[in-house]
Automatic annotation (TrEMBL):
SUPFAM superfamilies reported in the protein's UniProt record: Calcium-dependent phosphotriesterase
Name this polypeptide is given: Phosphatase
Pfam family, one: PhoX
Lineage: Bacteria, Pseudomonadati, Myxococcota, Polyangia, Polyangiales
Xref: PANTHER family: MEMBRANE PROTEIN, SLR8030 PROTEIN
InterPro entries noted in UniProt: PhoX, TAT_signal
Organism encoding this protein: Sorangium cellulosum
């Protein structure tokens, strides 16, 4: 969709459960108020296998389970989290998948009994990392999998970039707290490519604007900031300045109490020491007036606008969705949505834009977790439900052709492909 919606075009969901504003994203919301509805796909049907409830006409395939053998001799680690999908060679698509493990998680790490960490491991004691899952692009059947990055700590979310998958450490122990880049072509475990300039803090997610090479980064702290890394020259994308977002005229504002709407002018403040010994990056930002966000989580980008979630922000502590529209060294930020009822939205985590322009998000709440959607006509709906456990859903992303949605069931150790009557998808294999 190419037409952009004016920023002042308002939309609110009924019942005061979720309030939102139309996006100048690729989303084209209506101006009228809409009640919560079942959405274009219909109500969820109970899964007889007790794994994932989906609307009628949709099916899932389990691609891999934690503990299974990979093709390189390692095993599939547990706690799959953030994930990205990339086109691959020879009729394949490639999933790069985070694993949110730490040093204490040897039992669910990538190494079998008697195996040692490879020489390429960033930290031999840590069990986090990234795996690569190669699928047939026509049928989404598994072809192979392998370890790509080893020895990192609590790889939570991340995001796509022109160079591959950005994986983020949500931990600042010792040498940790960084973003690493993982090429989608890595068919074996590779030496770590650490992006020190992106900062050392409790990273959650990242996304790069391919036009400017500017990276946007969230921080999973209750008093966290929102950051960008601005290259001095797009031709040298990892040399530049880390900055935190501030709101003009509202020094150090706590954004958790904002109401939807009301675009605010932004300015960026420099982080003087992006790689400190202690966990002080957010404190540096706040000392210069940066805004505070309650646990920044998933992030995505469309048409130059950046959308991200704050999982415990808002009046119910159940989540907010923000939009940043960069304009040179300024731009605007506004709250698009917040939850006032956990039944409608409960702690949004990873988010993505569907190929047809709707926002999909997954939840990490305590009461049962869903894949939710926000439609182009202003409705919130349930697309999937974790029927197996109260565990987190994560890693939501679409295949390049829009025929499959991929996701992880973290505590259950499952990676799934969901296919069915998505908009614009003809019937076929998969």
């Amino acid at each position: 969709m190419q037409r952009r919606v004016p920023r002042r075009s308002f939309l609110r969901f009924g019942g005061a459960a979720v309030a939102t504003l139309a996006l100048p994203f690729s989303l084209i919301f209506s101006r009228k108020t809409q009640p919560r509805a079942v959405g274009r796909f219909g109500p969820l049907a109970r899964d007889p296998a007790g794994i994932l409830d989906l609307p009628a006409g949709f099916t899932y395939r389990i691609l891999e389970r934690a503990g299974a053998d990979m093709d390189d001799g390692y095993r599939v680690p547990g706690r799959p989290d953030g994930m990205g999908c990339f086109p691959g060679p020879d009729g394949t698509v490639v999933l790069l998948r985070n694993h949110e493990n730490g040093p204490a998680d040897r039992a669910i790490g990538p190494y079998k009994a008697g195996q040692s960490a490879p020489a390429e491991a960033y930290d031999a004691a840590s069990m986090g990392g990234v795996t690569r899952l190669v699928l047939d692009a026509a049928t989404f059947a598994r072809r192979s999998s392998n370890l790509v990055l080893a020895g990192t700590n609590r790889n939570c979310a991340g995001g796509p970039s022109p160079w591959g998958w950005l994986t983020c450490e949500e931990n600042v122990d010792a040498r940790h707290g960084y973003v690493f880049v993982c090429p989608a072509t890595a068919s074996r475990v590779a030496p770590p490519q650490r992006l020190t300039g992106y900062g050392r803090f409790y990273h959650e997610a990242a996304v790069v604007d391919p036009a400017t090479r500017v990276a946007y980064l969230t921080e999973d702290r209750t008093d966290g900031c929102f950051y960008r890394f601005k290259p001095a020259d797009p031709a040298a994308p990892f040399q530049g300045k880390l900055q935190a977002l501030g709101v003009v005229g509202e020094r150090g504002v706590d954004t958790s109490g904002w109401a939807p709407g009301h675009p605010r002018e932004i300015a960026w403040v420099d982080i003087d020491d992006p790689d400190p010994k202690d966990d002080t990056v957010r404190k540096q930002g706040r000392a210069k007036g940066a805004a505070v966000f309650r646990r920044g989580e998933g992030i995505c980008l469309s048409q130059g606008a950046v959308c991200f979630s704050a999982t415990t922000g808002g009046p119910a502590g159940a989540g907010q969705i923000f939009q940043v529209v960069p304009e040179g060294d300024g731009g605007t930020i506004e709250l698009l949505a917040h939850a006032t009822d956990r039944d409608a939205l409960d702690m949004p985590d990873n988010i993505t834009i569907a190929p047809w322009g709707e926002l999909f998000l997954v939840e990490d709440g305590p009461l049962g977790n869903f894949v939710r959607g926000l439609t182009v006509d202003g409705q919130v709906f349930d697309f999937a439900h974790n029927a197996r456990s109260l565990g987190e859903l994560a890693g939501v992303c679409f295949s390049p052709d829009g025929r499959a949605l991929f996701l992880n069931m973290q505590e259950d150790g499952l990676t799934l492909a969901v296919t069915g009557p998505f908009p614009g998808v003809a019937a076929g294999p998969g």
